[in-house]
Amino acid sequence: MPARDLELLVEAATEAGRIARGYFQRDPGIWHKPEGAGPVTEADIEVDGMLKSRLMAARPGYGWLSEETPDDQSRLQAERVFIVDPIDGTRAFIAGEKGWAHSLAVAENGRITAGVVHLPMLNATYAATQDGPALLNGQPIHVSAQHEMSRATVLATRANFDPGHWRGGTPPACTRKFRPSLAWRLCLVAEGRFDAMLTLRPTWEWDIAAGSLIAERAGARVTDRFGAPLRFNARDPRAPGLIAAPAPLWSSLHNGLADNPG
């Protein structure tokens, strides 16, 4: 089943890319969600509608959780659930930058079994199942071999390196970089182009579902910020932050946080 689900997700993500490219750098309509939840565009809405129609027609017994669909929580009764971000990195999309992605996953009883992150403007499709390798455009990928934090490059926003978050007020001695899509950040760690990624804010499931599986299958340890395993299709679909890295770097990041045991 995960392999067949993965094939379905790849096909749907490819179609999502075709739709989104039709709006990219063409001044799509933009709205702002209530309570500062961020922007949404015509492209987000059309992609979401296509994905829901296509995926639910193929798997009518599955539940549905998407950033752009009101959540009625009927998904909580389903054994398997689609978890989708139609466009992860909408601000980058609006700005005409290429680092946005379609993130599609299937969760079964709380665990991700298949996931795809597709970046149509970069010709990159990351994919994995729960029992297979992490792939980039069909080729296996693996996390970096970097073990030393002082030589590591970590994907994170500047706010995550505020001294108040870190034991003794000292952020890790590493190089910080940023990419706009959380799903892509996880895949860049999986690919070994960056050594780790970190976010300390509550994180929506649709941002991390597919990428977390891809990073895990590439050899990363992926947990919430407190070190707990990720679980999906929760009543409140948010994780308390995220750490993804090869085991030695994961330990350095986790143990360095002020609210985690050393």
From TrEMBL:
It comes from the Bacteria. Its cofactor is Mg(2+). One of its GO terms (molecular function) is metal ion binding. GO terms for biological process: inositol metabolic process; phosphatidylinositol phosphate biosynthetic process; signal transduction. Signal peptide: none annotated. It holds the Pfam family Inositol_P. Mg(2+) binds at residues 67, 85, 87-88, 207. Keywords: Magnesium, Metal-binding. Belongs to the inositol monophosphatase superfamily. This is Myo-inositol-1(Or 4)-monophosphatase.
